[in-house]
Amino acid sequence: MAARRHPGSCHCGAVRFEAGIDLAAGTIRCNCTLCTKQRNWAAIVARDAFRLLAGEAALSEYRCNTRTERHFFCATCGVRTFGMGTSPRWGAYVAVSVACLDAVTDEELAAAPVTFLDGRNDTWAAIEG
């Protein structure tokens, strides 16, 4: 299945975006302390596959640990909508919270493969289960 344009937003609707995502290609969950506490579940897309439609002024940014990845959340409702970074694996990327995708069915999310990453030990390799 090819990437499809998915609309997304925060809870209050101040932050709106769209991203070209192929959920069948997989999603990630990381066990680092930030992702664990946020219950973050993301789809990784290239930066040019992501477009912020509204709410740039409503975004707050958090950087942790190495301060290289930018975690964005809505300053009004507090929902983390996406993050941005650069990695050897993905290049310049956007990590879109799949929970913020507005037009995805529960069945599509249940069918999306999940790769678990070992961010807690800063290895970023897939955890073999």
Task: Please explain how this structure is put together.
- It is a single chain.
- This protein has a single domain (4-117), classed as Metal Binding Protein, Guanine Nucleotide Exchange Factor, Chain A (Beta Complex).
- A hairpin with a 5-residue loop joins strand 7 (70-74) and strand 8 (80-87).
- Helices cover 9% and strands 42% of the residues.
- A five-stranded antiparallel β-sheet has the order 4-9-8-7-6, with no helix packed on it. Strands 1-2-5 form a three-stranded antiparallel β-sheet, with no helix packed on it.
- The longest helix is centred in the N-terminal third of the chain and has 6 residues, at 33-38.
- With 129 residues, the chain is mainly beta.
- The radius of gyration is 14 Å and the shape is globular.
- It contains two helices and ten strands, in the order E-E-E-H-E-E-E-E-E-E-H-E.
Low-confidence sequence ranges: none
Rounded to an integer in angstroms, the radius of gyration calculated over CA atoms is 14 Å
- Please identify, by name, the CATH architecture: Beta Complex
Quick one: overall form?
Answer: globular
Give, in spatial order, the strands making up the sheet with the most strands: 4-9-8-7-6
What does the largest sheet look like? 5 strands, antiparallel
Overall residue-averaged pLDDT value: 91
> What oligomerization state is this entry in?
single chain
Order of helices and strands: EEEHEEEEEEHE
The CATH class, by name, is Mainly Beta
Count of all domains: 1
Structural class of the secondary structure composition?
A: mainly beta
Distance between the termini: 26 Å
